[in-house]
Amino acid sequence: FIFRTREFEQMEMEYFCHPDESLKHYDAWRDFCMQWLAGIGLKAENLRMREHTPKELSHYSKATSDVEYKFPFGWGELWGVAHRGDFDLTQHQEHSGVSQQYLDQISNEKFIPHVVEPALGVDRLLLAVLCDAYDVEQVNGEERVVLRLHPRLAPIKVAVLPLSKKLNDKAHEVYKQIQQHFVCDFDTTQSIGKRYRRQDEIGTPLCVTIDFETLEDGAVTIRERDSMVQTRVAIDQLSGAIFSKLAV
After folding, report:
1. Domains annotated on the chain, with CATH
2. Which of 180, 236, 174, 237 is nearest to 207 (CA)?
3. Which 3 state secondary structure label does DSSP give 82?
């Protein structure tokens, strides 16, 4: 359980801007955070932006918002965006005795920049991604576990699966071809159905199956993780088809 731990990973930055434009940049960072989370596949219904009330604000903050995620145990903070004003640099200036003013070389104006600080908890983000992606469904009376990771996040993009070990040589040719572009797995153990399920469980978006017809028609089958739809594609068009389906 990694929502709250004694040690954690956090990504944060201080974005410096002109005082007159600081609220504009604060709003822009709020929008960016929501768009970025949607871009890695988090569901819109599980995200919300909550503005802090005046009583919640730190004494130096002009505004603060939290992107919250709806975890199984309830809403929790995922990403904070704080408008810190000029507090950080004025404190440095006061205690160091060194001016923190910035000189705009175009306007010749001097000012102490304001700071917008986005801070994202990496551990919590990982937990949110797993909560959103993990799914269990019934397929033909059997339970299928699927990790519906966005293709950008999937550790393995494509699995190459020869239908029989007799097809390993041809399958290795295909594997070497697409390995130049994608992180791939090569799996020959157990039935094709069990191999599909293994790839579903680790979030692999696509499987490429080499069968005996491949030796005759030079085509393979692409099987999609989420829909389980299968499409026949010529080997010389395979990389392009994978790029199109992953759309990353």
Report:
1. 10-131 (3.30.930.10), 140-246 (3.40.50.800)
2. 174
3. strand
